Amino acid sequence: MHRFGRSVQRKTNDRWGGVFILAVVLAVVGAWQLGGVLGNLLGEEKPAAMEPVPGMEDVTSLPEAPVPTTRMAQTFQVHFVQVGAFRSEGAARQFVQELAKQDLVAATTPRNEQGLVKVYAGPFMTGEEAAEVQSIMAETGVAKNAFTVAMEVAYAPDAVMAMTGSVNPDLQAGLDTLNNYLFEAGAWFAKRSAGEPADGGALASLGQEMRRLATKLAAAEESPAITRFLGLADVASVNAADIEVAATASPGSEEFQRAMNGYVSLLEQYRNFYTEGGSGE
Q1: Of 11, 56, 57, 253, which one's alpha carbon is 20 to 30 angstroms from that of 207?
Q2: For residue 200, what pLDDT is reported?
Q3: How much is the pLDDT for 163?
Q4: Is residue 144 a part of any domain in this protein?
Q5: 45 domain residue, yes or no
Q6: Integer Cα distance of 114 and 87 in angstroms
Q7: Helix or strand (DSSP H, E) at 152
Q8: 63 in a domain, yes or no?
Q9: Which one-letter DSSP state was computed for residue 166?
Q10: What pLDDT is recorded for position 21?
């Protein structure tokens, strides 16, 4: 349930259930230790060391567990509630500050072709949650004319590869990583918007991976798609660093707003990237 207009209910643990589990654990540990003592007193022999397996003499330890993979890249939607549109960027930012005082996370969008700076509340990862907040805002008079906006994060790597003339594994990996970053960052902001704690560790890792792939692609043969992707990767890396700074900041702070505005701007640029086929034309 979203923080705005809703109270948070907390559950408590069963006191006696916890005491019982603790008693069982102590009993098991005590029995294990007693068995060891009796074994020593009775002269119980320890098992002989295992003989090395031929060909495995140099193996001293097992390999580390693989790093968990990220979600499969795919098309998804990020939802917002548009609460206003202003000619003045200063007025738009002032409205964002007023919403922050009511525990509502919002951000400004880049100025559009009509010269308007929009104010988006959110993001939300489902349309239902966005619609609920929009309804509450209308009922309370915060923004009577607010409406929901669904921003689609497309994923069509084949169309981008067509601009390069060949399949580029590094560009493919970059597109996957950027798609995952946009999803994880949206989920991070949605949790903060709901007043829940959010871990930015995954975002930092994705930002580092994008920088690594961008470095490799920068040395490759130039193409419109690669050039556009490098620009997006740079914006995403900066945004990841801003989110790391904003992790402990309040939604109304300058640090948090910088991260939020950067994410919305990145979404807009990403949408244009796929709409234009990565050509920038």
Answers
A1: 253
A2: 80
A3: 78
A4: yes
A5: no
A6: 9
A7: strand 147-153
A8: no
A9: S
A10: 33
- Are 84 and 118 contacting, i.e. CB atoms less than 8 angstroms apart? yes
pLDDT, tens digit (0-9, with 9 covering 90-100), for 231-268: 999 999 999 999 999 888 887 788 988 999 999 999 98
SS (H, E, C) 259-278: HHHHHHHHHHHHHHHHHCCC
Question: What is the chain's length?
Answer: 281
Q: Which two tokens stand for residue 38?
A: 């009796």
Residue 76: enclosing H or E segment and its boundaries? strand 76-86
What is the count of structural domains for the chain?
1
Low-confidence ranges of the chain (pLDDT < 70): 1-70, 276-281
Judged by DSSP in three states, 124 sits in strand
What is the reported pLDDT for 185?
Answer: 95
Contact 177, 205 (CB under 8 A): no
pLDDT single digits (tens) 162-191: 877 788 999 999 999 999 999 999 999 998
Report the SS3 class of residue 182.
helix
Domain that holds residue 177: 76-275
Q: Which helix (H) or strand (E) holds 60?
A: none
Q: Is 145 a member of any domain?
A: yes
Alpha-carbon distance values, 33 to 29, 30, 74 (Å): 6, 5, 53
